[in-house]
Specification:
single chain; alpha/beta; five-stranded parallel β-sheet; 6 helices; 20% strand; globular
Length: 139
Amino acid sequence: MITGYTSGVFDLFHIGHLNLLKNAKSLCDKLIVGVTIDELVAYKYKKAVIPFAERMEIVRAIKYVDVVIPQESMDKFELWKKLKFDLMFVGDDWYNTDRWEEYDEMFKNVGVKIIYFPYTKGTSSTLLNQALLKLRDDQ
């Protein structure tokens, strides 16, 4: 059995999120998804629009997802020590960053492959939130 893992805030759930989960599930038997807790979202100096518990329920309802867990730390390797996943799925916007080059090396040493999926151009929770704010301002 191949176990995959991905994580994200999954705020203002959109087609990019769905594509990530669908593509990830197509490459593993069991997909575990970490949903970032509200306190951790703040590391980006942001605040989720949708509360954590609701984001967990939304992701849990997606048919491609087998298990949903809170993402309480940004340390993916510590999480791997608990979950022992075989594949990790990440958006390609992280490819070749210092952090992910370190992760690539660490995970390679334990037999985990990191798969980078294309970032969905033109759609993100940040863009959706900006559009909503503009609509509210225009009213």
